[in-house]
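Structure, all two chains, one model.
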Amino acid sequence: RKEVEQDPGPFNVPEGATVAFNCTYSNSASQSFFWYRQDCRKEPKLLMSVYSSGNEDGRFTAQLNRASQYISLLIRDSKLSDSATYLCVVNRGNTDKLIFGTGTRLQVFP
Amino acid sequence: DVKVTQSSRYLVKRTGEKVFLECVQDMDHENMFWYRQDPGLGLRLIYFSYDVKMKEKGDIPEGYSVSREKKERFSLILESASTNQTSMYLCASSLVGSGTDTQYFGPGTRLTVL
């Protein structure tokens, strides 16, 4: 079983749509959770950290369910500029090492 | 503005050559990382360093070594390049240990080994 698993997609959605991505992780000792965004042929960049209580940043909402070892990202009112690959990232136990999922590709069309 | 730079965007080498990939960060970060990214496999950690002259193996260190002589610079060395080391190599840095800090990535080096 992979340490971090994501649906690779692609998710093809029209502008204005709401889309949700899910991710599961295998290490129950993980403490830090993130969503990174990676544009085509670019480096990954932090989109948002994920906190136990859930958190929101504009159109983006992240949720964490520790009991199910499950992380989600919700994007509301999708924009063309949201087209990218979204990486679910979890730290390995109590270490500085981050484990990256293989990413979920989102394509927003007009 | 945080900045991580890598010495080359594209590199073509021949099998058996020694290859140096350089990474420099200007944020005074303690931690630096080298990853490779391959389709369907995601980012995999090769080595990381949490201080000058300190290094730890990641998940796939075989065939690689690293050097960190100065805080801002972290080098990845392929002692004898092989075709299976053709990949995108990404360097990253972060401020402190604990796993809770953002990793900032360089633009990547796409290495092709012929």
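Chain A has a mean pLDDT of 93.
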